[in-house]
């Protein structure tokens, strides 16, 4: 049985699509392992019973350029660690999902002449994928406008399409449809603060389920349900009439493919972000799939007004499936073909 290593990490957007591809590769008879760094990818991979290996990774710092002096040494260490794993498992191919955690694995694979296939979820390509795409056998993208790759859509786990609102209601104790608010896999302080301040008004419109990330300040009131992290997001999607989210490409693809009303509060361009979430959100807005509230405009009145407006829209006319349900199948097939050449 040939082994494929999934490489990625740091955020859910670099992990969950890789998991989706892994599911399809398993169906095709491949053995799957996951390579990342020290982030949430370890917990997620283990939840899916995929063997996980973490190595030293590096991250380009926009805040302190001097920190980048350490990159060559740390990257070299990560590559050396990754090569040991790739050799031990006689890895046939590496699927690199982007993000800094995928870079040591892709470079290690290159040094061992192991084929690499990479995928970019965002509208603009991130730094790691820009480097990896130079030697990857295939570079795939989610958006047709992304330069340097072939657009196949964003890989989405099959379970996303089989969520149960009844299961969610039983677990969390709400009764009807919900307003689902996502802070992203790492939480979002600005969104959380605004939701806390507007909780009373929002619960007057609908019951609210708010996924915050690590948080100790959530209000305690009827109709407001606070969760730090949800492993049953498909069930919550099924129960939602509207979803408030950051602008990560993975979340946008999932919510859009389910035809949910969507309010996007993208992470702004700053020393923490290259502005990819703004680009993603604007693409969806131009195609009639979401409403945007830019973070600098985020206020209680703006959020409540947006939720009230979206609530009036019929679900069926809000969105269609932007990201093909078969993207994960396509990537698995691409990897299989590369190994057959």
From TrEMBL:
Keywords: Cell cycle, Cell division, Cell membrane, Cell shape, Cell wall biogenesis/degradation, Glycosyltransferase, Membrane, Peptidoglycan synthesis, Transferase
Membrane topology annotation: Peripheral membrane protein
Listed InterPro entries: GlcNAc_MurG (IPR006009), Glyco_trans_28_C (IPR007235), GlycoTrans_28_N (IPR004276)
Pathway where it operates: Cell wall biogenesis; peptidoglycan biosynthesis
GO molecular function terms attached to this record: undecaprenyldiphospho-muramoylpentapeptide beta-N-acetylglucosaminyltransferase activity
Family note: Belongs to the glycosyltransferase 28 family. MurG subfamily.
Record bears the keyword Cell division: yes
Record's protein name: UDP-N-acetylglucosamine--N-acetylmuramyl-(pentapeptide) pyrophosphoryl-undecaprenol N-acetylglucosamine transferase
GO terms under biological process: carbohydrate metabolic process; cell division; cell wall organization; peptidoglycan biosynthetic process; regulation of cell shape
UniProt enzyme class: transferase
A Pfam family matched in the record: Glyco_transf_28
Binding site for UDP-N-acetyl-alpha-D-glucosamine: 11-13, 157, 185, 277
Catalytic reaction list: di-trans,octa-cis-undecaprenyl diphospho-N-acetyl-alpha-D-muramoyl-L-alanyl-D-glutamyl-meso-2,6-diaminopimeloyl-D-alanyl-D-alanine + UDP-N-acetyl-alpha-D-glucosamine = di-trans,octa-cis-undecaprenyl diphospho-[N-acetyl-alpha-D-glucosaminyl-(1->4)]-N-acetyl-alpha-D-muramoyl-L-alanyl-D-glutamyl-meso-2,6-diaminopimeloyl-D-alanyl-D-alanine + UDP + H(+)
The Glycosyl transferase family 28 C-terminal domain, residue ranges: 179-332
EC number: 2.4.1.227
Occurrences of domain Glycosyltransferase family 28 N-terminal (ranges): 4-140
Functional summary from the UniProt entry: Cell wall formation. Catalyzes the transfer of a GlcNAc subunit on undecaprenyl-pyrophosphoryl-MurNAc-pentapeptide (lipid intermediate I) to form undecaprenyl-pyrophosphoryl-MurNAc-(pentapeptide)GlcNAc (lipid intermediate II).
UniProt subcellular location: Cell membrane
Superkingdom per UniProt: Bacteria
Main location: membrane
HAMAP family assigned: MurG
GO cellular component: plasma membrane
């Amino acid at each position: 049985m040939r082994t494929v290593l999934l490489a990625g990490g740091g955020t859910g957007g670099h992990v969950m699509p890789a998991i989706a591809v892994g599911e399809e590769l398993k169906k095709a008879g491949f053995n799957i392992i996951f390579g990342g760094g020290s982030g949430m990818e370890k917990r997620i991979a283990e939840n899916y019973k995929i063997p996980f290996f973490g190595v030293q990774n590096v991250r380009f710092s926009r805040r302190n350029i001097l920190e980048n002096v350490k990159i060559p040494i740390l990257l070299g260490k990560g590559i050396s660690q990754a090569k040991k794993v790739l050799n031990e498992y006689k890895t046939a191919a590496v699927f690199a999902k982007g993000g800094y955690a995928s870079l040591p694995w892709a470079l290690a694979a290159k040094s061992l002449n192991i084929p690499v296939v990479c995928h970019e979820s965002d509208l603009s390509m991130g730094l790691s994928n820009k480097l990896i795409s130079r030697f990857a056998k295939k570079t795939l993208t989610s958006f047709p406008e992304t330069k340097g790759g072939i657009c196949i859509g964003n890989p989405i786990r099959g379970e996303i399409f089989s969520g149960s609102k009844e299961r969610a209601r039983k677990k969390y104790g709400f009764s009807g449809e919900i307003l689902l608010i996502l802070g992203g896999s790492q939480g979002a302080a600005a969104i959380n603060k605004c939701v806390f301040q507007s909780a009373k008004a929002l619960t007057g419109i609908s019951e609210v389920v708010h996924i915050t990330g690590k948080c100790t300040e959530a209000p305690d009131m009827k109709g407001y349900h606070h969760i730090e992290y949800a492993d049953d997001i498909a069930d919550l999607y099924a129960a939602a009439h509207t979803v408030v989210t950051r602008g990560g490409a993975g979340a946008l693809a999932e919510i859009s493919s389910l035809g949910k009303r969507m309010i996007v509060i993208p992470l702004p361009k700053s020393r923490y972000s290259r502005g990819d979430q703004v680009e993603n959100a604007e693409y969806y807005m131009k195609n009639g799939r979401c409403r945007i509230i830019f973070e600098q405009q985020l206020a209680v009145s703006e959020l409540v007004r947006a939720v009230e407006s979206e609530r009036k829209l019929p679900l069926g006319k809000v969105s269609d499936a932007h990201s093909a349900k078969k993207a994960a199948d396509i990537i698995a097939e691409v990897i299989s073909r590369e190994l057959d050449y």
